[in-house]
Amino acid sequence: MSSPTFSSTITRLTLNAPGSTCSSELSANPWDTPSGYGPGASQGDQAPANFPRQQKLPQQYLSASEEELDARIRAAKETLGDDVVLLGHFYQRDEVVKYADFVGDSFQLANAALTRDEAKYIVFCGVHFMAETADVLSRDDQAVILPNLSAGCSMADMADAPSVQQCWDELMELYRDEEDDGRAAVIPVTYMNSSAALKAFVGRNGGLVCTSSNAKTVLEWAFERGRRVLFFPDQHLGRNTAKAMGIPLEQMPLWTPRRELGGNDADTLNAAKVILWHGFCSVHKRFTTAQIDKARAEHENLRVIVHPECPMEVVDAADESGSTDYIFKAIAGATEPTTFAIGTEINMVNRLAEQYPQHTIFCLDPVICPCSTMYRIHPGYLAWVLEELVAGRIVNRIEVPQAEQADAKTALERMLAARP
According to the annotation, is 3 in a ligand binding site? Predict the structure, then answer.
């Protein structure tokens, strides 16, 4: 899939609003961003102590104009030829995505890279956990590169390996005397938006990874093998999926890290079917039922589609919910001019509005607060990593430790087998 062509003549939604803490300046100089997640939807989230730091770019990239960076990126890509494949996530900024060989969600992109056997270098214009997944699935002789090491994910950071292990140990102790009916007491499931360490954790403990498109199939797989599911890090995807499967809310307790039994009592956890981790996506948490009500009042025959990382009340109020790929296909498949209100990251919404001008497509959130860390990938960083490759140097390589590779790949392969 090649990157689409974007028109500069279409009026775009702005990234700022009166009184908003979001700003269009987010796209300008991410090297000036303070430590942590920086401005955008995740600015209120607490970054972990080991949050990755990106080295300062050489001055030539800091001072280069947009036109100069464009010329340098294109020249470096042409020089590298088939040795490099460049991946751009749906949520990535346009001025980076326009160079991508493939555009898609995190798992689509990791798989797309595998179709380029000749590529020595996989440059992933997304965030850290995506690059880790690509490294797990790619060959040992291929190098995965993240242009800016500070492009993390606050949701993924909400479930760290020590906290999940502590949760697991407490659950194993609680369930140790349960009658053995041939099924495990609990099956761990991690969302794709998690570290390689957690993918390895579920792999070695009989669990698997899920995406927003196959979460129902994954939960069905887990319930065939266990009496309960521990679902992390996104509580909303877990709750929305389990609720749609008929599991009552009272059987979905929330596990809060660093509290005894996650802030629950033993009876609640014994009766649980899905134990939800206290994590969320700061972009999708911003969508509300009031936004949907306002959109319906202003537009007739409105079709509201939201991502399942949105809160349950928002998913219930929408006409449809689905993954980024679902949203893309729903709009692409609409045969009559339609007004769409979309609840997902603004870059994807803007791009869909440009690609399908026969429809009216807008974002539900009037403030339009973008993903803080996805914006860390700036053309300056992309030019730098590509020109370093031309010079024979690999910078910002993402390497999952060998101790985690096998178990993480097992979890991903189980996910691949769990097709909707």
Answer: no
